[in-house]
């Protein structure tokens, strides 16, 4: 007599082992990895932007008269510091730890505010960075860990 091996259940066939949750978990993990990569790239661009403004504050010009006006050297330092924080938080996102997501959300929020105020100096670039920051925030808040405690 031969006994047939039991057929694998739906829980055993999915990569996450949780029925239908495997696909959603892998896509949100991919979004989180993309967000981490975008944060690192964005942070590096902000660092280079800050260095350019610190080295020669005549690199950027203002378009029009706005309520908020700042010295471009000060803006260079702001972009440099925020850029370094964004790079660090971006590397932290690769761990998918809750603390990294909280830090990333705070740092990206600061970067969004900085880019909004930076609009008079680099309008096109600021809009690109604001949209990128909003995607990063969406993916950070949308991520659901598949780990059980």
Automatic annotation (TrEMBL):
Annotated ranges, domain DUF7144: 33-144
Protein keywords: Membrane, Transmembrane, Transmembrane helix
Pfam families noted in UniProt: DUF7144
Record field: transmembrane: 32-54, 74-94, 99-118, 124-143
Segments of this protein annotated with the region Disordered: 1-27
Name of the protein in question: DUF7144 domain-containing protein
InterPro entries cross-referenced by the UniProt entry: DUF7144 (IPR055568)
